[in-house]
Amino acid sequence: MMKGTRMIRSGCIVLLALSVGGSGLSRSALAQSSIVQQSITLGELFGAVRASARVAQFQQVRPVENEILSRQLDRLSRAALEPLNIDEVARAWTAADGSRNAPLSRIARYKPRSARSVLTTSEGIAIDSLLMVTLQFIPELLDARVSEDSADALLAPVRRFNSVRRTESLAQSLEKLARYERKYGPESARLNVAEIGLNYVAQNIPPFAPSADGWPSPLELIASYVPSYLTVSDGRAQAWTLLEGGVRVYLFGEQWGRPGVAGLLRPAHASLGVALVNEQGGALREPWRGNSRVGAFVAWGGAKLAFVGGEGPNVFITQQVQLLPWVF
User: Fold this and answer.
1) Residues 227, 241 contacting (CB under 8 angstroms)
2) What is the percent of the chain with per-residue pLDDT over 90, rounded to a whole number?
3) Which of 68, 117, 123, 139 is in Cβ range 3.0-4.6 Å of 80 for a Cys bridge?
4) How many C-beta atoms lie closer than 10 Å to residue 323's C-beta?
């Protein structure tokens, strides 16, 4: 059934090429052809390129460029490519290898649900070249030979592919900005001077550096003096000072970092690291002096919990807050 549907759609594209002439296509024909656009395969995209080139007399007018077009179509003649949905392939153009802004030639590892095989690197390059040549030269030649409606109908699969690619690229650009805002914006965790210096240096070192395509790393170094931890000692609550060193991980998912109660369950970041505590309690102490004890701390958003071994209080809690800007 699916195979028969693909044959019908391919036949529609061929009929479009045969029917364009001096009179062009009627609006009703275009309306019917829009049904074809609901789900277009790479095979139908390649067929549209061939039909457009034939109607535009591309071989006679632009023999050099036509040779490039023919060469790329030959590279893409593998039967396994034809059933691939062009929307899925176009979206993969911006999500290849996890970069979200890669050229189409980098989608070799992308595997659509509807196909058993994937594009190779050379096939990705061939599609890039094919579309570039088609859109650079053929629309102008078609406009000189057929009506505008006919030209639009012939090039619809090619423009559909590029439209999906542009839409996805815009969405990924907005997502990139949202991630930078989450990590560096007004709602991000406040850093002290030491952390600012450490992260300034670390931004040039993987895995703390941005990706090659400019996506921010989710990681951030922590080196913090925290005098606001609370614990229970001798039956009463006491303030305690801890020294923290670790890593903060920003959670970039769409459902994370929400305001209000939702943010408590899905905060913008989480942290993990080593905690150092002095044997004596109190705020503004020096955790590194005397018989210091070592443990670990975890944070879920602004809520922090520390566990320390040895004699004395072992569990400490606090809320992420910077009492003195840039310091602690």
Assistant:
1) yes
2) 49
3) 117
4) 10
